[in-house]
Specification:
Layout lengths: L13 E5 L3 H14 L3 E6 L2 H11 L3 E4 L6 H14 L4 E6 L14 E5 L4 H12 L3
Parallel strand pairs: 1-2, 1-3, 3-4, 4-5
């Protein structure tokens, strides 16, 4: 049986997913879509495509694996996002903890493991948009 994505709530955070692996992009998109709590509005696999997608869609949050394919590319993307959209929220993801990398940490970013539950991803995205 194929699960169907629930329609996102009108006030659901709009998300662009950035990951070098298209399978991961699709999996995260499907996973988040099933919750109905966030709206995935775009996906990208490299820095250039990510900047184009963010420019076009103006999401609330960018869900980003900073290894595009290396951390330097991810760091450049984060810097570009912060310059162009200073209030842009970034949720970092990966198989290992990227916290502590000074260039990746920032006032508008947080981290969730790719091994996290759907609830952890949604929570990280919602918390990025609406911090307590």
């Amino acid at each position: 049986m194929h699960a169907t994505a629930r329609p996102a709530a009108p006030s659901a955070p709009r998300v662009v997913i950035v990951d070098a692996d298209r399978r991961v992009q699709q999996s995260l998109s499907d996973l988040l879509g099933l919750t109905g709590l966030v709206s995935v509005v775009g996906r990208a696999g490299d820095v250039r495509a990510a900047l184009e997608e963010v420019e076009k869609e103006r999401p609330d949050v960018v869900l980003l694996d900073p290894r595009l394919p290396d951390v330097e590319a991810g760091t450049a993307l984060i810097a570009g996002l912060r310059r162009a959209w200073p209030s842009m929220k970034v949720v970092l993801t990966g198989w290992t903890d990227v916290e502590g990398h000074a260039a990746l940490d920032g006032p508008h970013s947080c981290y969730v493991s790719k091994g996290g539950t759907p609830e952890e991803f949604v929570s990280a995205i919602v918390d990025a948009c609406c911090p307590d």
